[in-house]
Amino acid sequence: MIRLYDGDGVCLDTPQNAADPLPEASCWIDLLNPAPEEEARVEALIGVEVPSRDELRDIEPSSRLYIENGAAYLTASVVWKADSDFAEIADIGFVLSGKRLVTIRYAEPKAFTIFAANAHRELEGLGGHDVLTRLIEAMVDRSAEVLEGRSRHIDRLSNRIFSSGEDDNPDTATRDLEAMLGEIAGHQRTIAKVRESLMSLSRVAGFLQILPEISGDKAIRQRCRSLASDIQSLSEHADFISENIIFLLDASLGLISVQQNQVMKVVSVAAVVFLPPTFIGTVYGMNFNDMPELSLPWAYPVALAVMAISAVGPYLWFKKKGWL
User: Fold this and answer.
1) Which residues pair with 104 in a beta bridge?
2) What is the DSSP-derived secondary structure letter of residue 293?
3) How distant, in Å, are the alpha carbons of 158, 253, 264 from that of 168?
4) What angle do CA 250, 198, 72 make, to 5 degrees?
5) Within 10 A of 90 (CB to CB), how many other CB atoms are there?
6) β-pair type (28-32, 11-12)
7) H helix intervals, the chain
8) CB-side exposure of 190: number of CA atoms within 13 Å?
9) Residue 165: Cβ within 10 Å count
10) Residue 45 CA, distance from chain mean position
């Protein structure tokens, strides 16, 4: 799919006939899951090659940021599906050729949707460099939005974790904590993807500042510097959130261990309480002939009394120590 926008962010109509050339007024050409013939039409308009999907996946630094035949090629790893617990990373390609920007993507990050909807209000007809920097800015803003949302979720999750100990039923509390481990894993996955995306965007922002077209434009150059500063701040914030998640994970595992120890303590106390009566009953259940107590009329009630005292005594002792 090809989406065309002019320098002012106005969406242009794409010619339906594949033989017709694309409009010369196209400033931003957005390729979403492009077919080979669509890539060929764009290449004919901008005069340089468009990277393929396999080339976008190349992780070599020299293959992600470079200049060739007068065009700048950039590849950024952008987080998407960040509103779910299964966030992913999508490799987005950018080709800056003259006054035109081409984006090649095989995913739909929310930042692109938001930027395209507001492009007519933000762009000022300055060309592809302005579009690119503002698009990167939208991605950074989206990362900040994801971090802020996850931070609120983590605060609420923290309250739930530390209030789970108020449940009198250890089994229920343990099941709740085990269920929260899945939520913690989902948050950690999303934050890790955001951190990876911010690292990639940081490299892109640094590369943009050395491009002659951008270094010669004071306003766009200042925007790139601001982007680099924002990315650094967000990276530090992501590290802070990640540390909080690790703390919650350790706290959850610790509380689960405490709840399980509580169960084992009750089992141990029960074993100690019933051990003396079991021993006494076992002794007098041997049925030896030479056991004088067996012939006494009061032997049976005395044995029951001793068994009861031997059970109640340890129970009262544990109760006094506060172990129950």
Assistant:
1) 31, 93
2) G
3) 19, 18, 15
4) 160
5) 18
6) unpaired
7) 36-46, 53-56, 61-64, 110-122, 128-163, 170-208, 212-215, 218-283, 299-321
8) 26
9) 13
10) 39
User: CB under 8 Å to 43, separation ≥6 — which residues?
Assistant: 49, 50
CB proximity list for 299: less than 8 A, separation 6 or greater:
293
Query: Which residues make Cβ contacts (< 8 Å) with residue 152, sequence separation at least 6?
Result: none
Closest CA to 230 of 202, 190, 193: 202
The whole-angstrom separation of Cα 72 and Cα 34 is 20
Q: Are 101 and 132 in contact (CB under 8 A)?
A: yes
User: Which tokens go with 126?
Assistant: 């300055």
For residues 195 and 104, is the Cβ–Cβ distance under 8 A?
no
Distance CA 137, CA 227 (A): 7
CA distance 265 to 271: 10
- Which residue type does 8 have? D
What are the tokens at 197? Answer: 């995306």
* pLDDT tens sequence for the chain (324 residues): 888 888 788 888 787 776 777 788 888 899 999 888 888 888 888 888 888 888 777 666 667 888 888 888 889 989 988 888 788 898 899 998 888 899 999 988 888 888 888 888 877 777 888 889 889 999 999 999 999 999 999 999 888 888 876 655 667 777 888 888 888 988 999 999 999 999 999 998 888 888 887 777 788 888 888 999 999 999 999 999 999 999 989 988 888 887 777 777 777 777 777 788 887 777 777 766 777 776 777 777 877 888 788 878 777 777 776 666
One-letter identity of residue 322: G
